[in-house]
From TrEMBL:
Residues 14-221 form the HD Cas3-type domain. InterPro entries: Cas3-like_dom, CRISPR-assoc_Cas3_HD, CRISPR-assoc_Cas3_HD_sf, DEAD_box_RNA_helicases, Helicase_ATP-bd, Helicase_Cas3_CRISPR-ass_core, P-loop_NTPase. In the central section; belongs to the CRISPR-associated helicase Cas3 family. In the N-terminal section; belongs to the CRISPR-associated nuclease Cas3-HD family. One of its GO terms (biological process) is defense response to virus. PROSITE patterns: HD_CAS3 (PS51643). This is CRISPR-associated protein Cas3. SUPFAM superfamilies: P-loop containing nucleoside triphosphate hydrolases. The keyword NAD does not apply. The keyword Hydrolase applies. GO terms for molecular function: ATP binding; hydrolase activity; metal ion binding; nuclease activity; RNA binding; RNA helicase activity.
Length: 908
């Protein structure tokens, strides 16, 4: 028996069944062999990037993949399951398992080790000592070894270790013997020359991110062999490869449904969205703009209701039809907006593919398991063929998602169509565990980023890094926004151009709006667009300086049967306004609602559903009459809401424009019923946008904003921009959309207007700018240096831990809380539901608020809650708050988490 047959690779908890290490390595390599079949687009694309023949890439990749678990040859690892068989290498107390096997595997072959020398010498001898640069040869092999030994989602640790603390001489000899046997099986004499090419080594570093993702994928699939098929006796490596590994791998890949579905021929926007009767100007442009046979960036700026999503999907389908993409990922700012988009796409995405195809649509965010639609879309592997018995019309009515793809957010981007938060895509350029799998998933996808204006400098900087990498992958991107400042638009174009290796486009400031910006290989094209008259409107702007004035507006509107929304900048201010309204006798309390983010999930879902029903597209006059919603920023993004009257706290101009887009969004009659006929104007009274804030003045004091809206200043710290916003709106007295959009945006964010900020506010504004630059610096520190290849050296800021520890957004320290209620002598979840009761009972609050609440919990309750946490795995990292009679004031299903006037505050 050859020594390498004396090591186990997989074992069961029963302590009886095990699978030999050599065979497990071949199982995983066989999956890689199947995934990189020379005829497959993935292999053709990567081989093209690397400048290699496809068959050569397949063989070398599979060869190195056999080495992914080399660290398991360590006696230290073998001791984890000693006593399986007397034929296996026993563990040793002198060699405890103190280093992970992935890093052990890297160090076994790193270029400082004697085994590496033996491998190189043996290979040179085997291949007739080819005339290669041995130093470059070593460097290239080192890149390969980091790719394959990083198979658990992060690159191996490269800090020096003493191999003798983990491996015996016999272990090292067995590993070398195994590798030499693999050389004979996979490689030939002429194979090695390209490894000494310095240019190839650089190309390999860039491709390493995707290759590492394939390694992770291959290891997951290759580790799926059932214990009943484990092999414990000696079989020749080639025989096992042909008769066991390859057949297993082919079935594993089929079950995972990783093959791209065939794309349907492009048939226009109305084919994707049959309910659209007339295309908007933006949608018409999306059907007609020229393509350039290579990867492209689109930036679409238009008013709310212009059909940006439909235009983006039209462009995506055209790109897919032209062979420039295989799928798409739609990234949104919040889980709520992602859920809403998932519902919309579930009715259209199947039309992107041919009639009999079953493409997967995956929802990618942390709470997706709470989405009924997503759970209903999951299909177990054995169900997939049975669904093909139904006709296409039956299938197109349902979303379809491979259960394997859906069981982890880390795999979600591998689905053909994905919808989720931007965070899931940003993790591709951060040192997060399984980052490489996200790189692989985004390849050949159209990246659609919605609500681009919603991101702070930190996330915007990370998005630029993502665009740069995606362009280098020859990926296409579409950015959607109501409005973007000139400098922000230019920064996204610059990032994409850098990644594509093209000269940065030179943008000239323009007043055109709506605007479609298209960056192909030949330059940049900016196309001014018109607006359909239904969404073009003029809103009278009136400034309010006192809460009583806002209350008067609400009272008069309610008496006239109108529906009203007041968007407050903080949860505390929203609750205070809601409480004031509950004391008024002129409003029906059943027609008054509060909507913010500090509700338990079960209450938030209920409130969001009621909000969409009462103020959404299909709401009726009866539903809307005299109804008032006090809300925070949760209503700004991607919720299709339509109010008769809008009051907004003073906020940056782009957010004001967003909020204004929720007023008279749909054409209605005087009573508020929706009118579907074309060429009919809105019959309600002309819209008025009320802005609540401090008194308007040309000479503000330093505390101008804080004295009126202290919470607002804590959130929107660039006070000068808010002063400019108020001055612009006050002087204009109206907001004409889309006519005024560009002037107003540049009038606040344009560099030339910074000098207009009063001296009394300049210091506060400079502090805000410094904080913004600090966020940009933090993003640059946290983001990966992808040019260094898949390695620990690519991260200057540490990382490579679980994604929860890698910030995709900078926010105040918050605590996840689960609400519990008494149940006899014990506790139960606040949410009285059958499924996911604990998840539905959770909410997040700022840490300092939790510390206050925690002090109110009795010692006896704390003790019993600690025991409850131990009983439920889902509560491991969650704080528990008991809604006992004495603590009930802390939470109310209409108000949310209790906040009190005078506290500092936070948004949402």
């Amino acid at each position: 028996m050859k020594n390498y047959y004396r090591y186990w690779g997989k074992t069961e908890k029963d302590g009886i069944r095990y699978h030999l290490l050599a065979y497990h390595c071949l199982d995983v390599a066989a999956v890689g062999w199947v995934l990189l079949g020379p005829h497959k687009p993935l292999c053709r694309r990567l081989a093209g990037q690397l400048g290699l023949p496809q068959e050569l890439l397949q063989r070398w990749f599979s060869f190195f993949l056999c080495l992914h678990d080399s660290g398991k040859f360590a006696t230290a690892f073998q001791g984890l399951a000693s006593g399986l068989s007397p034929e296996l290498v026993p563990g040793s107390q002198q060699k405890p398992y103190t280093e992970r096997h992935d890093s052990l595997g890297y160090h076994l072959w790193d270029d400082d080790g004697k085994l590496f020398d033996q491998l190189c010498n043996s290979c040179f001898s085997l291949w007739g000592k080819p005339s290669v640069n041995s130093i470059q040869f070593r460097r290239t092999l080192d890149v390969w070894m980091q790719i394959v030994t990083g198979h658990h989602g992060s690159p191996p640790k490269t800090a020096p270790i003493n191999l003798s603390n983990h491996f015996t001489t016999q272990d090292e000899e067995a590993a070398l013997q195994f590798v030499l046997s693999l050389c004979n099986q996979f490689l030939s004499e002429s194979d090695a020359a390209f490894l000494a090419d310095k240019a190839f080594s650089q190309r390999l570093k860039f491709a390493s991110w995707e290759l590492a993702g394939i390694v992770v994928l291959a290891d997951w699939l290759g580790s799926g062999r059932l214990p009943d098929t484990y092999c414990q006796h000696e079989i020749g490596l080639n025989e096992y490869w042909q008769n066991h590994a390859l057949p297993f791998a082919e079935q594993a890949v089929i079950r995972a449904r990783l093959e791209s579905s065939p794309v349907a021929p492009y048939a226009g926007t109305t084919y994707l969205f049959p309910l659209i009767k007339t295309l908007t100007p933006l949608q018409q442009w999306a059907t007609e703009c020229g393509f350039y046979g290579t990867n492209q960036l689109f930036i679409l700026e238009d008013v709310t209701g212009a059909g940006k999503t439909e235009a983006a999907l039209t462009l995506a389908h055209r790109l897919m039809t032209d062979g420039l993409a295989d799928g798409l990922y739609v990234a949104l700012p919040t889980m709520a907006t992602a859920n809403a988009m998932y519902e919309r796409l579930g009715k259209a995405y199947r039309r992107l593919y041919t009639e009999n195809a079953l493409p997967s649509l995956v929802l990618a965010h942390g709470s997706r398991h709470l989405s009924d639609s997503f759970r209903k879309s999951l299909v177990l592997p054995e169900d997939q063929n049975s669904r093909r018995m139904y006709g296409c019309e039956e299938e197109t009515a349902e979303t379809f998602c491979s259960a394997w793809l859906s069981d982890s957010r880390k795999k979600a981007l591998l689905a053909e169509v994905g919808v989720g938060t931007l965070d899931q895509a940003l993790l591709a350029v951060l040192p997060a565990k399984h980052q490489s799998l996200r790189c692989l998933g985004l390849a050949r996808k159209v990246l659609i980023v919605d609500e681009v204006h919603a991101y702070d400098p930190y996330m915007s900087s990370l998005l630029q890094r993502l665009l740069q990498y995606h362009a280098a992958q020859k990926g296409n991107a579409i950015l959607l926004s109501a409005t973007l400042p000139y400098a922000v638009r230019a920064s996204y174009l610059q990032a994409y151009a850098d990644g594509a290796g093209l000269e940065a486009p030179q943008l000239e400031p323009t007043k055109a709006y709506p605007l479609a910006t298209h960056f192909p290989s030949s330059g940049v094209i900016e196309t001014p667009l018109s607006t359909r008259k239904e969404v073009a409107r003029t809103l009278t702007v009136r400034l309010l300086e006192a809460v009583d004035q806002a209350m008067t507006v609400i009272k008069e509107s309610v008496e006239q049967g109108k529906c009203v929304c007041w968007v407050r900048n903080t949860v505390g201010d929203a609750i205070e306004a809601y409480r004031q309204l509950t004391k008024q006798n002129w409003i029906d309390k059943d027609r008054l609602a509060l909507f913010h983010s500090r509700f338990a999930m079960i209450d938030r879902q209920r409130i969001e559903s009621e909000t969409l029903e009462c103020f959404g597209k299909d709401s009726t006059a009866e539903m809307r009459c005299g109804r008032v919603l006090i809300a925070t920023q949760v209503v700004e993004q991607s919720l299709d809401l339509d109010f008769d009257v809008m009051i907004s706290d003073l906020a940056p101009i782009d957010l004001i424009i967003q909020r204004a887009g929720r007023e008279h969004r749909h054409v209605r009659d005087a009573a508020g019923n929706r009118l579907d006929k074309e060429d009919i104007s809105d019959q309600r009274e002309p819209p008025v946008l009320y802005i609540f804030g401090p008194p308007s003045t040309e000479n503000p004091a330093e505390n101008w904003l804080k004295s009126a809206l202290p919470g607002t200043q804590a959130i929107y710290q660039h006070v000068g921009q808010l002063w400019l916003t108020q001055r612009l709106l006050g002087k204009a007295g109206k907001l004409r959309m889309p006519h005024d959009a560009r002037d107003f945006i540049e009038g606040v964010y344009g560099e030339e207007f910074e000098s207009s900020i009063p001296d009394s506010l300049s210091e506060l504004s400079q502090r805000a700018l410094a904080e913004a630059y600090g966020k940009i610096g933090m993003a640059n520190l946290n983001a990966l240096n992808l040019s260094k290849g898949y390695s620990r050296a690519s991260s200057d800021g540490g990382g490579w831990e679980d994604e929860s520890k890698i910030p995709t957004r900078l926010c105040d320290d918050s605590v996840r809380i689960a609400l519990v209620v008494a149940d006899g002598d014990g506790w139960r979840p606040y949410a009285d539901v059958v499924e996911f009761a604990w998840d539905m009972s959770m909410l997040s609050v700022p840490n300092w608020r939790w510390q206050k609440a925690k002090e109110a919990i009795s010692l006896s309750a704390s003790t019993s809650l600690a025991l409850l946490r131990e009983e439920h795995k889902v509560l491991k990292w969650v704080e528990l708050f008991p809604l006992t009679p004495e603590l009930s004031a802390w939470y109310d299903n209409r108000i949310g988490w209790g906040l009190y006037k005078g506290d500092a505050d936070e948004p949402d």
